[in-house]
UniProtKB/TrEMBL annotation:
Protein name: Ubiquinone/menaquinone biosynthesis C-methylase UbiE
Domain called Methyltransferase type: residue spans: 61-155
Keyword Protein transport among record annotations: no
Taxonomic lineage of the native organism: Bacteria, Pseudomonadati, Pseudomonadota, Alphaproteobacteria, Hyphomicrobiales
A Pfam family it matches: Methyltransf_11
Length: 272
């Protein structure tokens, strides 16, 4: 038998794309992905306005836009939104949603680490739960800096989905026990059967395999050239509205997690 390594063109990035393509069919059924109340929508609006201000027709790029949840929030606030995602099934649902809601949001296929967007083009860039999946965040952050206008703002919404506290683990164990004996309501559908093993496999091989801590993300943003970087861990209002869709123990567990928003500014003098 030859000792020559087996070569393949199918790499981790392809696995990530295939995973999210497979997740598209049930993505909007999961609390924490789609929005299930006007109370939650208002909480998201307040977070976005806090860090980006109102839209006023400014151009925004929503990276890894998925089914368009954040894109629609930005559109609500008056931004002119382009959503970019590399999973065609996600884009199909995003386009259908925008058509149903008569929204003028542009959705197109693209890679968050190599957007192919023009230099100095967008006033704002948003993404939610993208950074933890990045294979090369240093490259990605440099790319985002490039396509922002001087003085433009990046808003990252993400979390550490690896490291859990003892209290969270205890709550989740009790919640599982309560569901098994039908003492607590079952979870809304989160992922098709068998997909969680794929999720764990991917998570073990991305850059932030040890968890995307806010301070580490902020450090890489500074390294890429962003300035005035602010970490906001006060997402409690959003988490409280989402918790109503789970049983009480899982709702409590959500509020213990390391989730955050990071705002970062492209220097006003920077032309890239």
């Amino acid at each position: 038998m030859s000792d020559t390594p087996r070569l393949t063109n199918y790499d981790l990035r392809d696995e990530i794309k295939a995973y999210w393509s497979a997740r598209a069919a049930t993505f909007d059924q999961s609390p924490g992905h789609e929005i299930f109340s006007e109370e939650e929508r208002a909480a998201w609006h307040r977070l976005i306005v806090k860090h980006l201000g109102s839209g006023d027709g400014r151009m925004a790029l929503d990276l890894a836009s998925g089914t368009g949840v954040i894109s629609h929030l930005m559109d609500d606030l008056g931004f002119k939104v382009t959503g970019l995602d590399w999973a065609e099934p996600m884009l199909e649902r995003a386009r259908n949603k925008a058509k149903t809601r008569t929204r003028s949001i542009t959705f197109r296929i693209g890679d968050a680490e190599n957007t192919m967007e023009p230099d100095n083009h967008y006033d704002a860039i948003t993404n939610r739960h993208l950074v933890w999946t990045l294979v090369d965040p240093v490259k990605a952050f440099a790319e985002w800096l490039r396509v922002l206008k001087p003085g433009g703002t990046l808003l990252v919404i993400d979390g550490d989905f690896v490291n859990t506290t003892l209290f969270e683990r205890m709550l989740m164990k009790l919640a599982g026990w309560g569901q098994r004996y039908r003492l607590l309501k079952s979870d809304p559908l989160h992922a098709p059967p068998g997909m969680m093993e794929t999720h764990r496999s991917i998570l073990s091989r991305v850059y932030f395999s040890q968890g995307a801590r806010a301070e580490a993300v902020a450090g890489l943003l500074a390294q890429a050239g962003f300035e005035n970087i602010t970490i906001d861990t006060d997402l409690g209002e959003i988490h409280r509205t989402q918790a109503k869709n789970w049983n009480v123990l899982k709702g409590m567990a959500r509020r213990t997690q390391h989730r955050y928003a990071i705002r970062a500014i492209k220097p006003a003098w920077a032309q890239m």
